[in-house]
Amino acid sequence: MAQVVERYPLLGGEIEVVRFAHRPTYYTRTYVPVERRYASKSCRTTDLDIAKERAIQTWRLWRNLAEDGGSPLGTPIEEAVFAYLKEQEQRFAAGDIGESTWRGFKSFFVNAFILYCRHKGWKFVRDIPRNGFVDYRMWRKSLSPNLIPRSQAVVGVKDSTVNRELTAIRAFFVKYLAPRGISGIDPVIKRMEVMEETFEANPPFSPAEWDRTWRLLAEWSYRPTNKQSVAYWRMCFRRYLIAARWIGNRPSELVARLRWEDIQFQPGKVISEADGKVELLALVTIRKAKGTKNKVDRTVPSHAGEHLQQWLEYVRDYRQRNGFRPLLPTDLVFGNPATNKPYPYSMWSKCWDNLRKELGLEHLNLYSTRSTYITSQLEQGVDVYLVARLANHSVEILQRHYDRMNLAKRAAEATPRRYGKREEDAAVSALDFVPKKKAKPDWSDRLRSNAKRKDFA
What we know:
The protein is α+β, with helices and mostly antiparallel strands and 457 residues long. It folds into three domains: 4-67, no CATH class; 77-180; 207-407, hpI Integrase, Chain A. It has helices at residues 48-67, 77-93, 99-120, 136-142, 152-155, 159-177, 207-220, 228-247, 251-257, 305-321, 345-359, 368-379, 384-391, 395-402, 411-414, 443-456, and strands spanning 4-10, 15-20, 27-32, 37-42, 263-272, 277-286, 298-302, 335-336, 341-342. The longest helix is centred in the N-terminal third of the chain and has 22 residues, at 99-120. The chain is elongated and about 105 Å long.
């Protein structure tokens, strides 16, 4: 701390005007008991009388800030944010919160929160007023998508996402800043009741889109490369995406936790009468993770058996050719063989970003494989309660977000009343529909009909 060479108490000692050694200008200073240190602000003058006047003005600002629960200490916003994220990282390491929660905290505060503070012109925590986040929703949905990386400019920002971020902002102030005396304000947060999202966050693949996707993956995974690690990663991503389509998992469940010991192969039905070929099923056990939506372990029977078996053979061969230790049952199915740890989630998301641009399917994301699985199960008539158990969803959430059945295919089921024996015509758009006109009878038919009547008479 710089040495004080002049000191002039004001307002009964609540503040003081001081001059430090080797600094010509005067400073206003006050002691903050909570932090056990001084807060100071330059008076920007070498005239003592002017310095005292400016010190009184500064004191008024500090007093108003204290009434709002703030602190005169000028803690930079970014410094407070990164200290908070460090604490959240420690919670993640201790297992108090899950990986997806920690990843969400980090992404939000590093990107949206800091960008919004810069947009408002706030540099220090003390600059943030209690009603400073009233227009956050408008900014987040209209301006931020063009500033934040990845796909938000394409898919937009959901109301539920903004609600979640506003909740995180309030927790940051109330549970972190306030106990440390950095800021005592309880920000005004305006959440919006979200009944149904106007934009489908995780739309499923259509049959045509999925056909294009797996065909491109097959070609992409064999593109020439000089690095064995790149070839392995491409094949890993390909096998993951195909397996995810048939298992209906959340991305983190397979990427970070699925191990070979959690997979069992089982013969299924005969799929070829000619050669007696039997489908290979995979019983995949999804393990619960602390701090996530997974409340219990669940085992999902799936059609991913053949894909996982081919991937298993590839992994064993790759490890042998490149001098890695033999595969163990506890190894991750989609892990990095060089580290025996999960690939960073950013690799998965960035890889899909590039592929979906090449496919022209930028509205789809990694969660779309899960939506595809659930929608497919419902369309095939699988009991909704069974689908809810397999997907680890409540029936209410399942019906609200995933019941995308094509009602046109079930028109007959929805309209069971019969009006007579008529042929079922293909559905036609209302604008294109033209009612059929009754054909006028031919005159020869009328004459024959009249002749029959006379004969009968």
